Structure formats: structure tokens, C-alpha cells
């Protein structure tokens, strides 16, 4: 097939990607959008296979079978609660693939300085994406400690790595021999840089990192596209790169922090919040049932704790019982609840909660004072009124769901330990707050049993 | 000239990406991310040309490895996105429900 025909087909593939992403913006059309984007990918791959540049197929076929099986099995097996880990690993495999593509491009004939530059860029971004994603996966799956790892000379070390990368890059570009050890040094430094970039980020900040790595995986593909002069890689890669940046920005805004602050500072290391004192009012499942039974409107506010307790199904069951009882039921979701953007929405969708009952923070806050009962399940920082009131709090200024303004608040909690950021939560001592201690799933199950009995 | 042309495409695509994504509701952020992630597996196209171009053995190896990882990214990414999106359902109309 001629190069012109292939490039025209790439244009169609690019249009399908764009159209697919557009359809992803509504739950009603999203399945179709994803399918259209997959067709675009298939088209791009098939037409490439017919290219005159491809002389031998045995390696391609073997490699594609292995990759296809691994990808398909992983996608089928993964539990919805582990979705952040899965996305991190997929990001990582895209990153390392771009690194290899860039590397292999060195073996093409007629490399110019510009090509060398783009090869180095794809190795750098691909390497950072790969090792950063592996560290993110480690933190999310708790293979390694999920809290921020910060040490004194961190910035110095990072600056050193970056300087060494630039120096090695320039030296290699001046004498790009295939056997040059500099190239291997660059690969190792890139991988190291990715590790260093993610270790100082704490578990609750993971939504930002996952979005950012997603962006990098796209940019790595775009850089590889420059290296091998392939336009579809540039178009698709930069679409993804832009998408990731937008999401990163949304996540940062939802935490009222700058990207630099999330990436470099760990969390809550600087300020100490005013100590919160007061009396907590525990409640039993029986009493919780009586209050819920009388409520005309109930809002559930889930957080990462719901995922940990696997409580999403019993939450939905309780929600349905409340609706049968005549209450208006909504699920209010903070943009950074969970470990990746939209994490809670996916879990509730898995439990068959219809998406029209999922409401965003901006929609629930203006009417929260009319909500009879707000049920907080495993969320802490995203409902902490200190973010609104206490200027000394490390999370001051972060937009929260104002559950403390609801008529009654139930907080489901294991014990009185503070949230991920280690910040005290004045919500627990509020006049209208009732604490339902114990495992969220067990507590809700006994409320459900009361309804049924 | 080629480089300028490609950079131009890069710039336009980035702006297009911003426009497309800024309208996605928070509900769909996870599937959006994994769907976008699957698209970033487009590097597979590059991997195919490296693995099949009959370059030196080492370059072919690199290409083949790239094909493995990129295929994981593409196949896994699209399938998991589809699995997630299939779960998002509208409320089934029941008697007595408000629309």
C-alpha cells in the first residue's frame, strides 16, 4: 500500500479518535464513543500492517498475541476497586512501549540531530511514565507504603538528575553512535527520574498523579511519533496528553493546590491545624434506622473507605429501600474522592446505582441545607469543615461537600483515627453529627436488616 | 519544513484535546482516563514498523517488545473502558417514579 494511502487512512483514524472522545462526554453515548475510538485504532493498525516498510511478520504476530492475551485477561479480571492500579499499569506499558519505539528509531538510517532530539525525548517521557506508573501502582496496591516519601535533599537530587540528563543528552546528540554508553545512562536516569517524581506524592493525592501519568503516556507517544516521523502518533498522542493535563488541572483545583505543591511537597508537613475538641455522639444502627426511616431526603457521600470496605452494594441496597420508603436519594461525589478521578462513580455504577442519582459537589452544596440526612461513608478530608473555616488547617481553601450544613449527618467510621492527611475533622464533633462506629459494610447491613425486618 | 509541519499538527491536536475533554462530566472521569489511555497505545503503530522493518536484530527485538507492551495498553485499555461504561445505567423507569 502506498504511503499516501496509509496517511489518508490515518486521517480517518484520527477523526474516529476525536469523535470517540467527544461521545465519551455523556454516559448515554460513551459506550459507542469508546467503540468508535477502538475502530479508529484497529484501522490505524491494520493499514500499518499493509505498509511496504513491513517486511517480516513473525515477530509482530507473536508479540501481538502475547500482548493481546495479557491485556484482555487483565481487563476482564480486574476488580472495580482496583481500577486505579490497573490504569496505572496500562499507562506504564504505553510509556515503556514508546521508550522502545524511540530507541529502535536510532537504528533507522539517515538520522538527523532533530531525530536524535525526539528520540531522547521519547526515551525520557516514556521512561518517566513507565517507572512513575510502577511506583504509583505500588503505592495504590500498597505493595509499598502509600504515604509520601520525602527527604531533605530531594530537590537537590532531582535537580542533579535533570542536569545530568540534559548534559548526557547534549553529548549524545553531538556523537550519536549506537554503541554509546551515554544512551544507556539516559535511559537509567529517565527511569530514576520517574521514581523520584512519584515517591513524594501521598496516597490521597494519587488522582493527580494518575492523571498526570496519563498525560505523559500520550506525550511519550507523540514524541515517538516525531522520532519515526509518523503523524497519527503525534495526533493521537497529543490528544491524550491534553486530556491528561485537563484532568490534572481539575484534580488540583478540587484540592485547592498547585500542581507543584502536589508533586513536591508531601502533605500537611508545614502547618498544624487548630486542635479540635468536643464530644462525639455515637449512635447505634437501630437509632440510625429510625432517623433514616423518617427522612424525606438522604444524600450518601462516599470516599475511599467505601471502596476499602467494599460497601458499595449495600449502600445501593439501602438507597433503594429509602426510595421505596418515599425518600429522595442522591449520591454526592467529590472530584477527588477515592484514588483516581471518578473512582466512586465507577464503584457505584458497578453496584447498579443509576448515573442520574450521582451528583457533583457544585450541585449538592446549594441545596444541602434541605437534606435531612447526609450519610458519610469512608470519606473524611472531602467533608472536613476545617477546609472552610480554619485558616491554619493544611487543607484550608479546598472545596468540600458541606455535609455539616445538612439537618443530620451520619459518619460511618471504624474508629476516631484522623483521615489520610492526618487532619482533625471538626465535623465529628458537630451538633448535628452522629457517629456510627464500626465496619461501614456491617453497619449499613444492620440498618438494611432493620428496614427489611 | 517537515518538523515545522509536524509541530503545527502537534499544536492543533493539543488545543483540540483541551476542547474535547473540558466538557466531560466528573461521573465519567475514570472511563475517560482509561479510554484516553487506550488511545495512547497508538504507539503500537510505531512499534509495528520497528518490529517488521527488517532492521538489525536488536532493533527488531526492541520493536517486538514495544508491540507486546503497546498491545497490552490498547487491548486492555479499550476492554476495561468498555466494561466500566457498560455499568453506567440510567434509572429504569418504575411505576410511580418521577421522570
Describe this structure in words.
The complex is a heterodimer of chains A (453) and B (99). Chain A contains 17 helices and six strands. By secondary structure, chain A is an alpha/beta fold. Chain A folds into two domains: 187 residues, no CATH class; 168 residues, TPP-binding domain (Rossmann fold). A six-stranded parallel β-sheet of chain A has the order 3-2-1-4-5-6. The longest helix of chain A is centred in the first third of the chain and has 28 residues. The N and C termini of chain A lie far apart (70 Å). Chain B has a domain of 58 residues. Chain B contains four helices and no strands.
Characterize this entry briefly:
By secondary structure, chain A is of the alpha/beta class.
Strand content of chain B: under 5%
Number of helices of chain A: 17
Strand element count of chain B: 0
Number of domains of chain A: 2
Assign an overall shape of chain A: elongated
Low-confidence stretches of chain B: 95-99
**Net shape of chain B:** flat
Chain pair sharing the greatest interface? A-B, 113 and 82 residues
Largest sheet of chain B: none
As a percent range, the share of strand residues of chain A is 5-15%
Amino-to-carboxy terminus distance of chain B: 58 Å
- Which H/E pattern describes the elements of chain A? HHHHHHHHHHHEHHEHEHEHEEH
Q: How are the secondary structure elements laid out?
A:
The complex is a heterodimer of chains A (453) and B (99).
Chain A (H helix, E strand, L loop, with lengths): L2 H21 L6 H20 L8 H20 L5 H23 L7 H28 L13 H21 L6 H18 L7 H22 L3 H24 L4 H6 L20 H10 L2 E6 L1 H6 L2 H13 L3 E6 L9 H8 L7 E3 H4 L8 E5 L8 H4 L18 E6 L19 E5 L2 H13 L1
Parallel strand pairs in A: 1-2, 1-4, 2-3, 4-5, 5-6
Chain B lengths: L1 H20 L7 H12 L2 H10 L4 H29 L14
Helix pairs in contact in B: 2-4, 3-4
Amino acid at each position: 500500500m502506498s504511503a499516501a494511502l496509509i496517511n489518508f487512512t490515518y486521517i480517518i483514524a484520527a477523526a474516529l479518535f476525536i469523535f470517540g472522545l467527544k461521545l465519551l462526554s455523556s454516559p448515554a453515548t460513551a459506550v459507542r464513543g469508546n467503540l468508535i475510538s477502538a475502530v479508529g485504532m484497529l484501522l490505524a493498525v491494520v493499514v500499518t500492517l499493509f505498509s511496504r516498510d513491513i517486511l517480516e511478520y513473525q515477530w509482530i504476530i507473536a508479540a501481538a498475541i502475547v500482548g493481546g492475551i495479557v491485556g484482555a485477561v487483565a481487563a476482564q479480571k480486574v476488580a472495580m476497586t482496583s481500577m486505579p492500579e490497573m490504569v496505572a499499569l496500562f499507562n506504564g506499558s504505553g510509556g515503556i512501549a514508546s521508550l522502545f519505539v524511540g530507541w529502535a528509531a536510532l537504528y533507522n538510517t539517515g538520522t538527523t540531530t532533530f531525530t536524535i532530539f525526539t528520540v531522547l525525548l521519547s526515551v525520557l517521557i516514556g521512561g518517566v511514565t513507565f517507572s512513575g506508573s510502577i511506583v504509583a501502582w505500588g503505592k495504590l496496591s500498597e505493595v509499598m507504603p502509600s504515604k509520601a516519601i520525602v527527604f531533605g535533599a530531594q530537590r537537590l537530587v532531582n535537580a542533579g538528575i535533570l542536569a545530568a540528563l540534559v548534559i548526557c543528552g547534549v553529548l549524545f546528540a553531538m556523537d550519536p553512535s549506537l554503541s554509546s554508553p551515554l544512551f544507556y545512562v539516559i535511559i537509567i536516569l529517565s527511569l530514576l527520574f520517574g521514581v523520584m517524581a512519584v515517591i513524594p506524592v501521598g496516597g490521597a493525592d494519587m488522582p493527580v498523579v494518575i492523571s498526570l501519568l496519563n498525560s505523559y503516556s500520550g506525550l511519550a507517544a507523540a514524541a515517538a511519533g516525531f522520532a519515526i516521523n509518523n503523524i497519527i502518533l503525534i495526533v493521537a498522542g497529543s490528544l491524550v496528553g491534553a486530556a491528561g493535563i485537563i484532568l490534572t488541572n481539575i484534580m488540583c483545583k478540587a484540592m485547592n493546590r498547585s500542581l507543584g505543591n502536589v508533586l513536591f511537597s508531601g502533605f500537611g508537613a508545614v502547618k498544624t491545624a487548630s486542635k479540635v475538641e468536643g464530644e462525639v455522639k455515637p449512635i447505634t444502627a437501630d437509632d440510625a434506622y429510625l432517623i433514616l426511616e423518617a427522612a424525606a431526603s438522604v444524600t450518601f457521600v462516599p470516599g475511599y473507605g467505601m471502596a476499602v470496605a467494599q460497601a458499595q452494594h449495600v449502600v445501593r441496597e439501602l438507597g433503594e429501600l429509602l426510595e421505596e420508603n418515599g425518600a429522595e436519594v442522591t449520591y454526592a461525589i467529590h472530584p477527588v474522592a477515592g484514588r483516581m478521578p471518578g473512582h466512586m462513580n465507577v464503584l457505584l455504577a458497578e453496584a447498579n446505582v443509576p448515573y442520574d442519582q450521582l451528583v457533583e459537589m457544585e450541585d449538592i452544596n446549594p441545596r444541602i441545607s434541605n437534606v435531612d440526612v447526609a450519610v458519610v461513608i469512608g470519606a473524611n478530608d472531602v467533608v472536613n469543615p476545617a477546609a472552610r473555616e480554619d485558616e491554619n488547617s493544611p487543607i484550608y481553601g479546598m472545596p468540600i461537600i458541606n455535609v455539616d450544613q445538612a439537618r443530620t449527618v451520619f459518619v460511618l467510621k471504624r474508629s476516631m483515627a484522623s483521615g489520610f492527611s492526618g487532619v482533625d475533622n471538626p465535623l465529628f464533633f458537630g451538633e448535628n453529627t452522629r457517629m456510627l462506629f464500626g465496619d461501614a459494610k456491617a453497619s449499613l447491613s444492620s440498618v438494611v436488616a432493620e428496614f427489611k425486618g | 519544513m517537515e518538523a515545522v509541519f509536524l509541530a503545527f499538527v502537534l499544536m492543533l491536536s493539543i488545543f483540540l484535546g483541551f476542547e474535547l475533554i473540558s466538557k466531560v462530566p466528573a461521573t465519567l472521569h475514570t472511563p475517560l482516563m482509561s479510554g484516553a489511555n487506550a488511545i495512547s497505545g497508538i504507539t503500537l503503530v510505531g512499534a509495528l514498523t520497528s518490529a517488521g522493518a527488517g532492521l538489525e536484530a536488536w532493533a527488531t527485538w526492541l520493536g517486538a517488545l514495544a508491540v507486546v507492551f503497546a498491545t497490552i495498553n490498547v487491548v486492555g485499555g479499550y476492554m476495561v473502558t468498555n466494561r466500566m461504561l457498560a455499568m453506567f445505567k440510567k434509572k429504569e423507569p418504575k411505576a410511580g417514579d418521577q421522570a
